[in-house]
Every structure is written in C-alpha cells, then in structure tokens.
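Changelog-adjacent note: as of this version, every example in the card shows the full chain rather than a window. The one below runs 129 residues end to end.
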Amino acid sequence: MKDVTHTPLFESILRGEIDGNVYDLENDYQCIKMHLDGAEKKLQLRFINDDYKIIVEFHQATITCFTILPEKSGGTSLSGFYRGQFKYNNNLHEITAQGKYYYYLSFLGNDAIELFAKRVTLTFSRLNS
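Full-length structure tokens:
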C-alpha cells in the first residue's frame, strides 16, 4: 500500500511505485469501477490491466465535482491525478480546517472528479488475488 495523501501540490500521482512495483495509471490501466460508500465516506476507484489491479481509496471523501458520461462503455483511462488547491473566501488553500486535502482526477473524454479527502491510498495486487 502507498499513502499519497501528502503528495506535493500539483505533482502527478499517475505514475510511481507501490511496494517495489512500478505503475502508470495513464497508459497501463483502465478504471473499471467507481464505488462511493456514503456511510464510511469512502470513494474507491478500481483500475486493472492484464495482470494487476490498483485500488485508489479516498477516505473521509466529500465530492465537489462529478462529471462522468454514462454512454461510455468499457473502462476509462485516467489522464490526470494530483493534489491541488481549492478556493475559499476568495483565497487559495491547501487544507481545510478539518484536515482534508483537495484532489483532481481527469479522464479521457473530459470526465472529471474533484473531491476533498483526509487520506488517499493506492493498493497494488495481482488481478486474481
């Protein structure tokens, strides 16, 4: 598991390493499932390729923008994923008073998700495990 909560501002989270395994969410994986657990306030995105899966979890999530075109079929490729700033009282901020950071996810085809989250983790495993 990799905790990416405190990734530097605007640094891409699309590529990196999880437990010694190199990943590239933009070129090597497709998002096949998005699940929001309202009770736990957890958003989970599941990415797969031929051999592996990566689960991205946003803990204590509050979604502020969700634009997904339902007519798309199959998986969706992620084209942007980073921690950014949000505007509050005409000022840019990195963190809320509740300790939440702001994340931007963009997919091919102009789909997007923006959300606040207290913690963000990526878990890497074999596809059939």
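Structural remarks: The two ends are 15 Å apart (CA to CA).
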